[in-house]
Amino acid sequence: MSFIKEFKQFALRGNLVDIAVAFVMGGAFGKVVSAFTEKLIAPLIGLLTGGTNFYDKKLILKRAVNEVRDPSGKIIITNGKEVALEWGAVVTSLIDFIIVAFVMFLVIKAINTLKKKEAAEPVSISKTDQLLTEIKDLLSKS
Q1: Of 18, 36, 114, 127, which residue has the fewest beta carbons closer than 10 angstroms?
Q2: Residues with Cβ within 8 Å of residue 15, at least 6 apart in sequence
C-alpha cells in the first residue's frame, strides 16, 4: 500500500474525524464560555463586590511611567514598560475552567444515565427466536 493511500485511510477513519469534530466544537464551546464568564458572570460578581471588575485586576511590580530628575532637580518623565501580575485574568480563566468542567460533568453524567437505562431494558426476543431456542434445547438434550 502506498504512503498516500495509507495516510488517506488513517485520516478518514471514524475516530480521527470524531476527534477533529470534537476539537472544533470544544474550541467554539470555549469561546461561548469565555463570553459567558466575561459578559455575564464577571459583571454580576462586580455588582456583588461593589463594581470590581476582576479581569482588569493586577499587581503592578513596575509602573509604566518612571519619574527621573535631571541634575537641576527638574522632573523628566520617561515612558517604560509596565511589569504587572495580571491575577484578575487568571481568576476569570479559572471561572471559565470551572464552568467547562461542570458542563462536561453534566454531559458525561447524562450519557452514563442513558447507557444504564439501555442496559437495564430487557431484550425482547421474537417468538420465532424463542421457538428456535426451544428446538435447539430439545435437540441438545436428545
Answers
A1: 127
A2: none
Instruction: Tell me the per-residue pLDDT of 16-48, one tens digit each, with 9 for 90 and over.
Output: 778 888 889 888 988 888 888 888 887 888 788
Rg over alpha carbons for the chain, rounded to the nearest Å, is 32
Lookup result for grid cell 461593589: 50
* Cα within 13 Å of Cα(68), Cβ side: 9
Positive or negative: CA dihedral 71, 75, 76, 82: positive
Cell of 138: 430439545
In the chain the first and final C-alpha atoms are separated, in Å, by 53
Q: pLDDT (tens digit, 9 = 90+) per residue, 57-74? A: 888 888 777 667 777 777
C-alpha cell at 60: 503592578
Whether the CB-CB separation of 57 and 88 falls below 8 Å is answered with: yes
In order of start, what are the domains of the chain with their CATH numbers? Answer: 3-115 (1.10.1200.120)
CB 88 within 8 A of CB 71: no
